[in-house]
């Protein structure tokens, strides 16, 4: 085989002990955008948060949240 793809998800987080990962997804999405705001778009330090929320959150949610952020109607604390 050519290149093998390694799949990983976000590490366990004691703040989210249940199997329902909705809050975990939302928190990681917010952490990513807070990191970008603090460190800048060019910073690679935020990439781990991006990997976490991308592995936890359904794509439809992320698309909707991105649209809401662009429109200024995002419900979360950014």
What fraction, in percent, of the residue positions are helical?
A: 40-55%
Mean pLDDT: 86
The proportion of strand residues reads: under 5%
Globally, the shape reads globular
Number of strands: 0
Query: How large is the radius of gyration?
Result: 14 Å
Please give the count of helices. Answer: 3
Q: Give the structural class.
A: mainly alpha
Main β sheet profile: none
Order of helices and strands: HHH
Report the end-to-end length measured between terminal Cα atoms.
Answer: 43 Å
**Which stretches are poorly predicted, pLDDT < 50 over at least 5 residues?**
none
Element layout with pairings:
Blueprint: H1 22-39, H2 47-56, H3 59-71
Helix pairs in contact: 1-2
What would your notes on this structure say?
- By secondary structure, the chain is mostly helical.
- It has a domain at 21-71.
- Helix content is 53%, strand content 0%.
- The longest helix is centred in the middle third of the chain and has 18 residues, at 22-39.
- Keywords: Disulfide bond, Mitochondrion.
- Disulfide bonds join 25-57, 35-46.
Brief characterization of the structure:
This is Cytochrome c oxidase subunit. The chain is 53% helix and 0% strand. The chain is mainly alpha-helical.
Keywords:
globular, CX6/COA6-like_sf, mitochondrion, 78 residues, mainly alpha, 3 helices
């Amino acid at each position: 085989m050519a290149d093998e793809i390694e799949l990983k998800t976000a590490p366990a987080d004691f703040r989210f002990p249940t199997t329902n990962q909705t809050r975990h997804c939302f928190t990681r999405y917010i952490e990513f955008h807070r990191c970008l705001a603090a460190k800048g778009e060019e910073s690679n330090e935020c990439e781990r948060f991006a990997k976490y929320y991308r592995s936890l959150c359904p794509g439809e949610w992320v698309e909707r949240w991105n649209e809401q952020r662009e429109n200024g109607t995002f419900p979360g604390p950014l």
